[in-house]
Every structure is written in structure tokens, then in C-alpha cells.
Amino acid sequence: MTAVKPPRVISPSLQGNAIVAAGFGQNVILTTVTTFILVYLIQYVHVSTAGIAVVTTIITVAKIVDAVSDPVMGSIIDRTRTRWGKLRPFILFSALPVAVLTGLLFTVPDVAEPAQLVFFGIAYLLWGLTYTVCDVPFWALIGSAFPDPMVRTRIVSRVRAFGAISLGLATLGLPYLAQALSFDLTTNAGGWSRAVFLVAIVGMALFSLAFFFTRERETVATTRLSFRQLFGTLFRNTPLLMVLLGSVLGFGRNIVQAGGAVFAVIAYGDPAYFTLIGAAIILGIVIAAFLTPLLLRLMTSRTLVIGSSLVGAVFYVALYLVGYRSILGMVVFIFLTGLTLGIFLVVQATMIADAVDDSEARTGVRNDGISFATLTFVSKIMGALSVLVFGVFVVLAGYEDGVTITPVMQNIVFASITIVPAVSCIASAVPFVFYRLGSSKA
């Protein structure tokens, strides 16, 4: 009789490094799509103003559909049983489809604009759905592999910090890579396609490390919960629902990332200026991500997220008053808003994890998949709203490639990345006031 080989034990440090590397690779892909897709379509595919209105609608609808699919994906995960666990198989088998579809988003064929929009719409919808398959189990795996709250917070902060670093590398480096791979004096659409395919393959290779070098928490559950039980537990988790509402209302935090490159073209006539803006916000996020675990030792998560939201609103208003013509002022206040965003990103994830633990303590049910799907759910809703609102402002301003840019046009778009985020931060703070756990931590 052949002895069953026990699973290989992986040290916590190796698991942590694998998770951080996977998050780094995954975030490169997300950054590439969210930061450059509008720039690619406007500057290199030459989509018209009417076409951009269609594109922003496609992105918004696709993100909402995708976001709604997150809890469904989470419930599928919770009902999955394999020898590799219920989370890791989805990470392995989603990597290649995500890489291919990411490249296709930046390979819009040179045909009539309606056909281009159809191609983009299909590719974007499929990309969003496959990204859900990789994203939901990744965040659930953090909660499963690291049950200690303090350790989990440190891992989340590192994932967020290195995610911001990957954001910086992609934001600053991808335009140069696209130029190099254009094989011409100027950057062209083909260069962007080749650059994005290369980045997507490398990013998903790193992401796959989460499958090979992590292990899930063992569970005593022997039966699959029904969809009704899973969703019922979710909707009775009031603290979790408050985090979701506060996060969605705070969608304005993402507008700078969604529209910063286009704003740089409108305000300064050169997307290279976005490197300064992007570097400033990234530096703020990285510093805040590493400091947030220390701040959580001094105050509760609720106090920290409310305080950072209100301070962020002040910084956005100050940025509007300073104006975009002051590059130094832009960089300084964008950096400060990056600090508040970095705090929010870490605290948001830890508050969701704490709410899941609290629900398990009260109900005896731990539904990692569907609960952690809410984190990706709100992230996509926030992204959809930020793209939609920024797109509305661009359409109102009347901007498209080749149009004469006026001060009125510049001011309209500038308001979208300053005043809208300020109002959004204030609204975001309100639901967090009502965040209460059954235990002492909040």
C-alpha cells in the first residue's frame, strides 16, 4: 500500500513573500488597464468624443456587472472542494486568460469606430469577468493563510505598499516601454499592444506564485453551505455592510488614477507630466501603507479611517485652490492625498477581515470567498464610478484628440479630480461612524 505523501510545509515568511509578489504582479495589470486605457483609446486609436462617451459607459456597465459577479464568485469558491483547497486553483487557472485579455484590450483593430467599440466592449467585459476569478480568491487567501490579525495587517500593508510601487513602475515605465516597442520615432498603437502583452505575461507569472507557495487554513467544514445561507450570513454582517457603503461613497479617491493621464494632456499638453503626479500619489500610498499598522496601535480602525477621510477632503480642496498651474503645489497636495489614500486602502481591507472574523465568532460560519469578495466588489464599483464621473466631465468639457484646448475646458476637468474627491471623502466618512463589532476592536 502506497503511503500518502503529506503536503509540503511552507514557512509563513515564504507565504508572505509569495503573496506580496503575487499582489505586485496583479496590480501591474490593474494599473495598466485603469491608468492607460483612456489614453490609448484617445491618443492612439483616436476615438471621438462620442466614442469616449460610449467607452466610459461600457467600462461603467462592465464594472458594475463584474462587481455584482464578485459575490457570486465568492459563493462558488466557498462551495469548492479540491485537493489544492478552495482558493488556490482559481489563482492558477485564471492567470493565462487574464494575461491574454489584458493584451487584447490594447490591440483594438484599425477598422471603423463602431466596430472598434464593439471589439473593446466584448474584450473589456471578458477581461473583467476573468479578473474577478483571480482577484476574489487572492484576497480571500490572505485571510485564510494568515489567521493572526496583526500578521494579516502587516501582510495587507505590504501588499498595498508593493502594489503602489508596481503602480509607480507601470505608470512611469510603460509609456517608455511602448515607445521602445513601437520601433518608430514616435509611439504608436502597435507599441502599446506589444508592451501591454509583455507586462501582462510577466505580471501573471508573478501572480501564479500565490498558488505554488501558499497554503490555505484548514477547515472543519464537511458540508457545503447553500447559496441562501452564504448570502444570508453576508447581509446580516452589519459592520461589513458599513465598510462597503463607506467605500463606495469614497469612489472619488480613484479619480486621479483613472483620469490623471488624460488631465495631464489637457492641462499641460503632455502626458509625461502625469509621471510627476503619479510619482507623488504613489509615494504617499507607499509611506502610508507601511505606517498604517503602527497607527492602528495608537487608535481604532474606525477613528483612523474617518480621520483620514476628512483630512483627505481638506487636501483636495486645498489642491483646487492652489490650482493646476502650480506644478509644485500639485505635486505636494497630490502626495498628501496619497497618504490618506494609502491609509484607507490598508484599513479598508483590515476592517473587512475583522468583520469576517467577528461574524464567524457570532454565527460559527466562515465564508471566506463571499465575504472577501466584497473587497473586490467595492473596488470595482469605486473604479466604475470614478471612470464614469471623469468621463462625464471630459464630455462636458468637449475634449477629444486634436481639439483646441481652452481654459474653461481645463478648469472643468480639474474640478473632476479635486472637488469631486473632496465631496466623496466627506460622504465616505459617514457610514464608518456606524461600524461596530461584537468584540472590542473597531
UniProtKB/TrEMBL annotation:
A biological process term (GO) from this entry: carbohydrate transport
Pfam families attached to this UniProt entry: MFS_2
Molecular function in Gene Ontology: symporter activity
SUPFAM superfamilies registered for this protein in UniProt: MFS general substrate transporter
Gene3D superfamilies: MFS general substrate transporter like domains
InterPro entries documented for this protein: MFS_2, MFS_trans_sf, Na/Gal_symport
Residues spanning the membrane: 20-42, 48-69, 90-109, 115-140, 161-183, 195-213, 234-252, 272-296, 303-321, 327-351, 372-399, 411-435
UniProt superkingdom: Bacteria
Keywords: Membrane, Symport, Transmembrane, Transmembrane helix, Transport
Gene Ontology cellular-component terms listed: plasma membrane
Protein name: MFS transporter
Organism for this UniProt entry: Lacisediminihabitans changchengi
